[in-house]
Amino acid sequence: MSSKPPITVTQPFLPPLDEFIPYLERIWQSKWLTNNGPFHQQLENELCERLGVEHLALVSNATLGLVTAMQTLRISGEVITTPYSFVATTHSLVWNNLKPVFVDIDARTLNIDVDLIEAAITPNTTAIMPVHCYAHPCEVERIQRIADTYGLKVIYDAAHAFGVTHKGQSLLRHGDLSILSFHATKVFNTFEGGAIVCPDLKTKQRIDYLKNFGFADEVTVMAPGINAKMNEVQAAFGLLQLKHIDGALAMRKAVDQRYRDALANHPWLEVPALADDTEHNYSYFPVLVNRTHAHTRDAVYQQLRSAGVHARRYFFPLISNMPMYRGLPSANPERLPVANDVADRVLCLPIYPDLSTDDQQRIIDLLCR
């Protein structure tokens, strides 16, 4: 085992502590700790401006954001989605008593394979929930055409996609709703947290009711809501993060480029290409271990870990292979060959603003032995 400190796959970006103290002092002075406080309102406004969207509702985490999104659009029956994602994507459907229907992924983008969506539609299908995996844009135009043809809603799990633009437009403007994650490991974080991007004020109002137990006022409950409010400390930290986000993104880009330059011609690693016509946020750096390599992905994972590099097999195991989902007809591995193959070969390498050049070179050297 290496004596050096472990290098994790991602670390939260933390601005200087002394910059955060004035925010905390204002919260203490106001005694407004949660429930649509001034920092909460300010962060919603500043995020809308930053992300190029009209309306956005902050939530305490992205999982509750996904759950609330389904309630907002009154989704029922079956929802077509990808098995290659974090478990919260599918869990949010089950918490709404919805049936997930898995569709295989595209080998190039690692997103849902749009060519397979129509064949998965049944009379019970009401929505499609794709994932912008690793912030790589889904084929949003084609997905929308399918949704329009069959009268389906589109809810994007955009957990990774903070600040991503595609063809000159915010990626978050597509679909009926998009859900962002502001978890500590994300490009932009509020410790825990998230947001639902919505197209109009009426939809935002319904989300705001639902995330606060359904309350419209002190005595009026509009719907069976949940407690998904973001508190003032989280919102304040988000406002501070926004002041530093451009620098953090630039540092992520530099880390990404060093990996790409060093691993471009690697004999047994594949590096997925970045999407064209896209302004990226460099949220993850996935690589695929070729099956022709003498060692398996798991062996490479263990070798890195033994050297103090904590890469992630992200996403593994595949959601459709987990005990609670593998009994679904759509979870049959024969129907999901690409997703199963990728899940068995993927490694996400460390990428975060504070990753030093020396530490990154150590990772590269371990992979190039």
Automatic annotation (TrEMBL):
Keywords: Aminotransferase, Pyridoxal phosphate, Transferase. It comes from the Bacteria. Its EC number is 2.6.1.-. Pfam families: DegT_DnrJ_EryC1. Coiled coil: none annotated. The keyword Transferase applies. One of its GO terms (molecular function) is transaminase activity. InterPro entries: DegT/StrS_aminotransferase, PyrdxlP-dep_Trfase, PyrdxlP-dep_Trfase_major. The keyword Transmembrane helix does not apply. Belongs to the DegT/DnrJ/EryC1 family. This is DegT/DnrJ/EryC1/StrS family aminotransferase.
